[in-house]
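Justification of resources, computational component.

The compute hours requested in this renewal are based largely on the per-chain cost of generating structure records like the one below. Each record pairs the submitted sequence with a full structure-token output. That output is archived, and it is also reused by downstream analysis tasks.
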Amino acid sequence: MRVVFVPVTEVETEKKPVSQCEASGCEEKRLFESTYCWRHLSEEGRKSYVLKIKDIVKAGKGLAGVNLSGIHLPGADLSRANLSGADLSGTNFSGADLSRANLTKANLSRSDLTRTEISMADLSEADLSRANFYRTCLFGAMLPWANLSGSNLSWGNLSEADLSSANLSRANLSKASLSKTKLPRANLSMAYLFGSNLNECNLFEADLSMANLSEVNLLRADLSRADLFRANLSRAHLFGANLSGTRLSGANLSETELFGANLSGADLIGANLSGAELTGANLSWADLSRTYLLYTDLRGVKSLKGVNFAGAILPEGFEELMAQLEAKKTDPKDPDYSAKK
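The structure output for this chain reads:
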């Protein structure tokens, strides 16, 4: 008996990618070990799914690289969880415990992390853009090369965290604690840091151009070779800070405390230093051309050697001060003694 195969015309149907949510018309990715995205899970489905994720973490199993975008896990205990490379965008982690968690290269953009415990966690190279970290604890966390652009970190604790080369452009860091935080070469351009604490912070070669640093505490901070072009440092406290070789052109330093600060070789062209406290400050070889120095007391400055005052608006009694300094150069006890033997 001969079998005859009759060709069947297939009806063409649009097939969804395996990773896509099965809900009609939805183009979002399905959640880890689910056929739907978070938005299309039923109320009961969401409750059971959250319990499932908590059980996985409790059992010590990793969730590296999985999709959990949009999931709601407020108050969850996710300490020491492995979420490296996971998609956690738009997730609600408010009040959760993510301390010592592995979140390297994870996507947490637009996530709610208000009042979350993330101390000692590893967020290296993570995408945290536009995330909400209001009053969140990131003490000692690792965040090198992390993207925090446009994020809200106000009133947060980032003390002793490592944010080397991190992107914090346009971030809100008002009233945040960043004491002893590492921020070398970080991008803080146009960031809002009003009233924040950056005492003993490392900002070597950091970009703080056009940032708002009004009333911040930067006691003994390292700002050497940083870019503070047109930054607002009015009424800031920079006692003993290192600003050597720093770009401060066009910056607002009115009523700023620079007691004992090192401004040697700094670029202060066109800056506003009206009413600034410069007692004990080192201004040697700094460029103060076109700088506004009216009402600034320069009598207690440690060194004005080689300073460029071309076109500067000078305080009353400036000529007398310079004459006194010139006379001191003939004093063998003076550091700038230049008399011929």
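Residues 8-13 have pLDDT under 50 and may be disordered. The chain has two helices and no strands.
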